[in-house]
């Protein structure tokens, strides 16, 4: 079974600063990787996903992530954050479950953007 | 499209009481899921369904039951609530289980006293 490690539980940054949220997964032959965002008191919504092809994936709200197979990482980045980016971010990997697949989530990283 | 809706939004139960959480989706998705979210634990899969009339256990199924009588609805039941079931419950649906994104509902905050 896959596991996902988000290396930082909390990341405080100032507005307009760059940010990187780190995610590592356990190795597998092929993986599908996802980043979800959860704004306060809301459900999760997809930021971006890596299925195949280019290792640099662009998502919504100016976020991007880089898939690194050798380091089994899928770090999320944004060059300049806004107050509205304050949220919890979850990295997830598609993991086989019998004949189906499930998402295995990391424990989340709380991004707090301060003015 | 309403997407994925959940009822109720909040609920307080006493230990031993029962309740059912309702999830509905209008995207004609085959796959539906129930998760619980606890602080510092991320999301953990309780049960899932790959189509109408089918259900299967996830990572943490004990104490919960589910039913999928209609394609658009996925019910989560607690027969005898325990304080350990205090959590935020999310329902999700997807077109496929592997590469397609899951769409999440707004959540139900359940407190068991």
Total count of strands of chain A: 12
Question: Radius of gyration of chain B, rounded?
Answer: 13 Å
Compressed to H and E, one letter per element, the order of chain A equals EEEEEEEEEEEE
Beta percentage of chain A is over 45%
User: Portion of residues in helices of chain B?
Assistant: under 10%
| Radius of gyration computed on alpha carbons of chain A | 14 Å
Main sheet record of chain B:
7 strands, mixed
Major sheet of chain A, described briefly? 6 strands, mixed
- Helices of chain A, by number, come to 0
Largest interface (CB within 8 Å) is between: A-B, 24 and 24 residues
Percent in strands of chain B? over 45%
Mean pLDDT of chain A: 92
Protein structure class of chain B: mainly beta
Which regions of chain A have little confidence, pLDDT < 50, spanning 5+ residues? none
Descriptive account of the structure:
The complex is a heterodimer of chains A (115) and B (113). Chain A has 115 residues and is mainly beta. Chain A contains no helices and twelve strands. Chain A has strands spanning 4-6, 10-14, 19-21, 23-25, 33-38, 44-50, 56-58, 64-68, 73-78, 87-97, 100-105, 109-114. The radius of gyration of chain A is 14 Å and the shape is globular. Helix content of chain B is 0%, strand content 50%. Chain B has 113 residues and is mainly β. In chain B, strands 2, 4, 5, 6, 9, 10 and 11 form a seven-stranded mixed sheet that branches.
What structural keywords apply?
heterodimer; A: mainly beta; 6-stranded mixed sheet; 12 strands; 0% helix; 56% strand; B: mainly beta; 7-stranded mixed sheet; globular
Summarize the structure.
Chain A is an all-beta fold. Helix content of chain A is 0%, strand content 56%. In chain A, the strands form 3 sheets. In chain A, strands 2, 5, 6, 10, 11 and 12 form a 6-stranded mixed beta sheet that branches. Chain A has a 4-stranded antiparallel beta sheet with strand order 3-9-8-7, with no helix packed on it. Chain A has a two-stranded antiparallel ribbon with strand order 1-4.
């Amino acid at each position: 079974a896959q596991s996902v490690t988000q290396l930082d539980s909390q990341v405080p940054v100032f507005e307009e600063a760059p940010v990187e949220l780190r995610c590592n997964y356990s190795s597998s032959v092929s993986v599908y990787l996802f980043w979800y965002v959860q704004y306060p008191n809301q459900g999760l919504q997809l930021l971006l996903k890596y299925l195949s092809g280019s290792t640099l994936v662009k998502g919504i709200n100016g976020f991007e992530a880089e898939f690194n197979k050798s380091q089994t990482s899928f770090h999320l980045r944004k060059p300049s954050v806004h107050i509205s980016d304050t949220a919890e971010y979850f990295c997830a990997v598609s993991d086989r479950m019998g004949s189906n697949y499930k998402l295995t989530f990391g424990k989340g990283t709380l991004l707090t953007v301060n003015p | 499209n309403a997407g994925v809706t959940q009822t109720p939004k909040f609920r307080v139960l006493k230990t031993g009481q029962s309740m059912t959480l309702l999830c509905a989706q209008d995207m004609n998705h085959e796959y539906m899921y129930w998760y619980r979210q606890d602080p510092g634990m991320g999301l953990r899969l309780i049960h899932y369904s790959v189509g109408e009339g089918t259900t299967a256990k996830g990572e943490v199924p004990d104490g919960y039951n589910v039913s999928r009588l209609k394609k658009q609805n996925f019910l989560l039941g607690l027969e005898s609530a325990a304080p350990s079931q205090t959590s935020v419950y999310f329902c999700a649906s997807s077109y496929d289980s592997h590469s397609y994104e899951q769409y999440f509902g707004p959540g139900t905050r359940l407190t068991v006293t």
